[in-house]
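Thread amino acids onto this structure.
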């Protein structure tokens, strides 16, 4: 794990002033690792601040007791992807991610699934939130990375039309409220979609309502430690790390992830470079999760 100088770590104090949760100290940079990797690595367990685990939503009821107990026992913050809509639609109707199936997928039928199953989705979130609260307690923070690819449900490819941005915002408000009611210690992060330009970003996040979020996160392993743009850099209209922080005033959680299409190792050596980390801290990034930080 890189040994960052104390002066570098103090740069993180500039970020997160709008943050509502106490999940992370703002006096230094944070490292996270995956449950499967860290649970049998006692040295790494001592060094990381947070643990990621199996994604939330793969069952109709809470099924992540081992993961949250590991976090609780070792005094680590759980930072977990919440993907209830997609997993539930897959169980109920066989809907796949858009890059997995071209005929029966979330980009064509996801919006209708939400319209028909809104209460079911909220009920599953309630089950998971109650399960997390039972283990972590109401005053211990848990970070929920909310619904990767959430914007896909607004696409024009959706049968019957996509959700409006306002409808998507109301749904996210109800999801967050459901979680918070059942798990008062929850903190929330909204996934940035860095392939959309900055005009889209402002409209989208205004509709979603950033007041309910503590962080913005990247997912999928495509985030770049070595450049000012989060992912793609083919257009100056795409968001940079600094633009996102300065625009929305939320600290960023980065990850090396699982790669495009679910492939990859969850490791990216560019996030090991101290110069890259210095630059990204200056841009508002407060943490990086990869299997071996």
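Threaded sequence (293 positions):
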């Amino acid at each position: 794990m890189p040994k960052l100088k104390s002066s570098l770590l103090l740069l993180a104090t500039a970020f997160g002033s709008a943050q509502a949760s106490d999940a992370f100290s703002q006096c230094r940079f944070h490292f996270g690792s995956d449950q499967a990797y860290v649970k049998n690595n006692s040295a790494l367990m001592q060094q990381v601040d947070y643990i990621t685990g199996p994604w939330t939503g793969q069952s109709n009821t809470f099924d992540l007791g081992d993961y949250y107990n590991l976090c609780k026992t070792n005094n680590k913050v759980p930072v977990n992807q919440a993907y209830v809509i997609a997993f539930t639609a897959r169980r109920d109707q066989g809907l796949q991610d858009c890059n997995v199936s071209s005929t029966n997928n979330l980009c064509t039928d996801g919006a209708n699934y939400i319209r028909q199953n809104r209460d079911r989705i909220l009920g599953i979130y309630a089950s998971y939130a109650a399960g997390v609260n039972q283990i972590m307690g109401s005053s211990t923070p848990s970070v929920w990375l909310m619904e990767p690819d959430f914007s896909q449900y607004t696409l024009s490819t959706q049968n019957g039309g996509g959700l409006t941005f306002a409808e998507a915002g109301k749904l996210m408000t109800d999801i967050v409220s459901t979680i918070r009611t059942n798990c008062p210690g929850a903190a929330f992060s909204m996934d940035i979609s860095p392939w959309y330009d900055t005009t889209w970003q402002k409209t989208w996040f205004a509709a979603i309502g950033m007041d309910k979020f503590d962080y913005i996160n990247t997912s999928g392993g495509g985030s770049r430690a070595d450049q000012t743009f989060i992912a793609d850099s083919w257009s100056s209209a795409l968001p940079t790390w600094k633009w996102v922080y300065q625009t929305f005033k939320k600290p960023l959680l980065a990850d090396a992830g699982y790669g495009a299409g679910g492939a990859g190792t969850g490791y990216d050596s560019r996030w090991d470079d101290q110069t890259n980390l210095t630059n990204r801290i200056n841009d508002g990034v407060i943490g990086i999760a990869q299997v071996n930080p």
